[in-house]
Amino acid sequence: MFGFGKKKGPTLGLDVNSASVSVVQMEKTKVGIELTRYGSIPTPPNTVREGLIADPETVGAVVQDCLIQSGLNLSGAPPVLNTVVPGQSVVIRLMPVPTGMPPDELADVVTQEAINHVPFPLKEANLDWSIMPATERTDPDGVRRVDVILAAIQKAIVDSYWRMAESAGVTLGRLDISSLSTIRALSFAGYLDQPDHLIMSVNIRHEATDINLIRGGMPLFTRSVLLGLETLGEAVSRSLDMSVEDAVNLLPQVQLFGMASVEPRIGQAAQISRTVFGDITDEVGRSLEFYRSQVGEVQIDQIILCGPGCLVPQIDEFMSNRLNIGAVLANPFRGLSAGADLVPTERAPAETMVTGSIVDSSWAPVITVDLDLNKEGPSIGALEGIEARPTVRIVEEDTPWFLPALLGGLVCTLIVGAIWLYFSQFDVPSKVAELNRVNQQIEDEKRQLTSLSKLRDDNAVLKRKKQLLDEIIKYSRPWSAVLKTIADNTPDGLQIKKVSIQGNAIKIEGDAVDFSKISDLSINLGGSPLFMDSTVAFAKRNTQEDARIIEFGVVSRVRPAEELSSIAAAGPGATK
């Protein structure tokens, strides 16, 4: 009879890649669909590899920061995040089946197809499949058929997204596929309105490129090639001897057409860009030729480009000229009634996938495939440490027992009241006095414990100081120059709390408010002649005290004593 409903948090889209973490929230209002929140934060190095989460805890902390940046209040019900997984991590199969097949028989066909084509045991996979009504046709043999799309992903990948969500304090919603999410976003934006048009979408992601052939909102052909923005960034980085991040930041200045830039670096980056995008365009052409070999001659009406690779100017003209097919840059927000200005114009094509992850099927004018690889949830091992949140449902039903239960409740209330009166007047006062005495004793012991704890901390500080002095005396290195180098190369926004020496290694620990500052400290020390190398040992958010503070550790190996002495003797200029 009585119950409480569990409040559901807002639903947002999440895209995690090696360069950034992005969140998007859209809501339906009386005037249309509005973009209400948007946030994007750089991804810490080596936390995402080949499009998949390698460090769920660190990524979860970044996701939480991104939600806060977007203006979401995390004190309420946990938000639900629909997430996109890269297409190359998912096995996708299209299979024709006769129309009108009974559900049980169709399920057996799909299961057998999965056994034959999924390259890992089905017990280690999450599966989902869907009939594509727009593909219904009569084949040359006279049989009426329709296509079914099957998708499979390893449970280990799904588990990593669950751990990320738990670390971020959110609920993991639908797990979408990059290629299908892109199609849904393009349908929402009105690019697929013509049901008889054959559209090719080319999503140039960081680690790969998704190629889709689409008619009537349905994917007729899907392929992922391992060429993307990372390929281009690494090629420019090697050629110009700069970091990959600096190389990618240089790409918006590149011109794929027209006169060569007067700046040699820009001109060289442009030449490399033409080569890499030429390879991607060739793969697009091969995909089209393969499809034609299967179904016969077809005409592509338009190529729609999206993904972070679109930050390079003139990419649409480049691909259009190479393939002789009209190409445009996607804008997934062009169908919004408000809020599109929250996303910078140049970032719009890059946010196509994350937009598609939260588009409701009723919002898009064309029906698209809706698969969810998170229907089966995490594996048993992944549930360890995940806090269970019970759901209490409101149930309405006839209650003929209500009046007898009410009378019984009143009788019980009278009995309980009498018992309470007895205890409150006779038994409780003595117990209160005893409790006060015990509380006072506890407070006294707490004060003693605090005093002992402070004394222990003081002893630990003195011990660390002694260890530092012993190391300085033992290894006879010019540590003053080393410590000065650390001070000079510490970026603003970092607070160093501890420096410890272990042999020829120095471990620096402290607090930060930005992951990039930690990377800057490691890079600065690694570039100093006093150090052989420098790495980030750890970087985690202090969730117990202040979620904005990031605890970090950087380990730098100092050069041998004889080399340090010669460098220190060279004077201040030697450490620049």
Largest sheet: 5 strands, mixed
Q: What is the share of helical residues?
A: 25-40%
> Rg to the nearest angstrom?
31 Å
Number of domains: 4
What is the CATH third-level topology name of the largest domain?
Nucleotidyltransferase, domain 5
Strand ordering within the main sheet: 3-2-1-6-10
Shape: flat
* Class by SSE composition: alpha+beta
- Total helix count? 13
Mean pLDDT: 85
As residue ranges, the low-confidence spans are 1-6, 386-397
How many β strands by DSSP? 19
Strand content: 15-25%
Identify the CATH architecture of the largest domain: 2-Layer Sandwich
For the record, the CATH class of the largest domain is Alpha Beta
Measured between the Cα atoms of the first and last residue, the distance is 74 Å
What does this structure look like?
The protein is of the alpha+beta class. It folds into four domains: 1-188 and 352-361 and 372-397, 2-Layer Sandwich (Nucleotidyltransferase, domain 5), CATH 3.30.420; 192-329, 2-Layer Sandwich (Nucleotidyltransferase, domain 5); 412-466; 479-575, Gyrase A, domain 2 (2-Layer Sandwich). 39% of the residues lie in helices and 25% in strands. It has helices at 56-69, 103-117, 155-168, 178-188, 229-240, 244-250, 264-295, 315-323, 352-356, 402-475, 479-488, 515-526, 561-569, and strands at 11-16, 20-28, 33-42, 48-49, 52-53, 80-85, 91-98, 125-138, 144-154, 171-177, 198-204, 209-215, 218-225, 302-306, 327-329, 494-502, 505-512, 531-541, 550-558. The strands form five sheets. A five-stranded mixed sheet has the order 3-2-1-6-10. β18 (531-541) and β19 (550-558) form a beta hairpin. The relative contact order is 0.10.
